[in-house]
Amino acid sequence: MKLVSTRDIEKKGSSYTDVLLAGLAPDGGLYVPSEYPQFSVEELKSLQDAPYIQVALATKHKLIGEAIPKTDLEGLIAAAYKKGSDGFDVEGDQITPLRPMREGLYLENLSLGPTAAFKDMALQQLAEEMEYELNRRDTTLRILGATSGDTGSAAEAGIKGLSRLTLFMLSPETGMSDFQKAQMGSLSGDNIFNISVRGRFDDCQDMVKEVKGEPEFSDLGAVNSINWGRISSQVPYYVSGYLQAAKNIGDPVDFVVPSGNFGNVLSGYVARKMGVPIRKLIIATNENNVLHKLFTTGVYELTPATVTSSPSMDISKASNYERLVFSLLGNDGEKTAAYMQEFATSGSVDLKEYGLGADVFAKNDFFSGESSHAKRLQAIKETYDEAGTVIDPHTSDGVAVAKEYFDPSEKVPMICLETALPVKFESTIKEALGFVPDRPTRFEGLEASIPDDAFTVIDPDVESLKEFIRANS
Ligand SMILES: *Cc1c(COP(=O)(O)O)cnc(C)c1O
Fold first, then answer.
1. pLDDT tens for residues 185-213?
2. Measured distance CA(473)–CA(469) in Å, rounded
3. What is the 164 CA–ligand 1 centroid distance (Å)?
4. Which of 138, 154, 185, 358 would give a disulfide with 123, using CB separation of 3.0 to 4.6 Å?
5. What is the atom index within ligand 1 of the atom nearest the CA of 262?
6. Among 32, 26, 24, 37, CA closest to 6
7. Helices (H), 100-256
8. How far apart are CA 33 and CA 1, in angstroms?
9. Is-above-0.90 flag for pTM?
10. What whole-number distance in Å separates Cα of residue 104 and Cα of residue 270?
11. For the CA of 264, the nearest atom of ligand 1
12. From the CB of residue 194, how many other CB atoms can be counted at a distance below 10 Å?
């Protein structure tokens, strides 16, 4: 099973484990599978009542073949999705349990992991796989990343204590919620370095890009969602959600996905390509509606992000969309490279000029909708009133859009992905409901317990960053 770059014209192909440690392809493209292994209806039926770990094993094994032998892979998956105080806060065998909002409309909870956001689903597994592969190669890896919130703590929780990985995580000094800052701060130490940049998230990202561009640091690994290891580790929860919602295996199910960088929903697309009977994939954006505009007009336009009350979806562009456009353009690396080049230089690109209309999305069963602060508050309130459950502001963007599309007379179940727990965004919940959500015991007193030196503060200056990495390598 080979992976090819979305901009690779020769389609040379790389192995899964090389891609895992590398991140971006050398030509600037993103890795995608050269073919999609298939689930048969019989296979799906055999997994219907299986524990999550077995669903994940079957899915991931199909996707990566023998790159990691199946027995080893099983051990990595069991470690990534372990239950308990530093793992997943679940009771039964389902790591991503479904609960109903109304007849036929469900929430799938992806945020019961150690840092209470769906990023744990990918990063717990990614860290285990990286450590495994580094062991096999008897080497180590430094990782440099930037976060505006949930990726940082999830990557740190996955990598903390592993012996072959060192993580340098940049975050903006202001902008994250107190809870998010405290989560990261509580994970500082050992092989985890938190670097707070006097600047914005964009400054952090620019610094990462610049440092990695230099020969001395070109071997640094990546944990953002451009890493195929992350995308492939998210496919199993689409399979699991499907198996939990479908009355008869083979019947269709729709998914609604609160989206930013397009990483989450891309995994749903992969699941569908693998033969899971997913009908619609519906993307929900917040006020930063780059994706909604793209899906309705065919024009992909870089738009400065504004700060909203669903901050993990505040994006100016959606990196993983490149993987979809490659597929829509018939796996044509040359066309994809030209399309992305036009976007990079002019900040805007129209699918029309590449032989496709805006209707290409609907034809491929992709739909979208846009939420807002008012809609978020309303969806939080309605969900609480109707189902007695408190949802976070990102999930709420999804629920708001789901209600535009959900038609009970079609009898097709619809699953809204729950991407964070409300405890991470207390002030918005208070605004919507008049009270703060219950805090899971493991997060009690979190903000009070952070040491003063948990973050090293630097200016948005590449030289200081390079010095820090050298000194701590
Ligand atoms: C990262 C994140 C998203 C957006 O996911 P993408 O994969 O970037 O589309 C949505 N909700 C929450 C809570 C997140 O942390």
1. 999 999 999 999 998 888 898 899 899 88
2. 6
3. 27
4. 154
5. 9
6. 32
7. 119-137, 150-159, 178-185, 201-212, 228-245
8. 7
9. yes
10. 24
11. 7
12. 25
Residue 158 structure tokens:
């996955």
Helix or strand holding residue 75 (H, E): helix 70-80
Contact 370, 288 (CB under 8 A): no
Q: Ligand 1 centroid vs 303 CA: distance in angstroms?
A: 18
Number of H helices, E strands in the chain: 18, 14
Sign for the pseudo-dihedral over CA of 170, 171, 173, 179:
negative
Residue 445: left if φ>0, alpha if ψ -120 to 50, beta else—which one?
A: left
Of 62, 119, 335, 375, catalytic:
119
Residue type, 259: S
Between the CA of 121 and the centroid of ligand 1 the distance, in Å, is: 12
| pLDDT one-digit tens code per residue, 9-40 | 878 899 999 999 988 888 989 999 999 999 99
Cα dihedral sign for 77, 83, 84, 86? Answer: positive
SS3 content of the chain, % helix, strand, coil (to 5): 50, 15, 35
> Could you tell me the sign of the dihedral formed by the alpha carbons of 93, 254, 311, 320, in that order?
positive
Q: Which residues pair with 100 in a beta bridge?
A: 106
The pair of structure tokens assigned to 96 is 């991503």
Q: Retrieve residue 7's tokens.
A: 């901009």
Cα of 260 from ligand 1 centre, angstroms: 6
Residue at 152: amino acid letter: G
**Best residue among 205, 259, 295, 323 to mutate for probing ligand 1, ranked by most atoms within 8 Å of CB:** 259
Q: Of all atoms in ligand 1, which is nearest to the CA of residue 395?
A: 11
Q: Is 430 a catalytic residue?
A: no
- Ligand 1 neighbours by CB, cut-off 6 Å: 117, 119, 150, 225, 258-264, 312-313, 394, 419-420
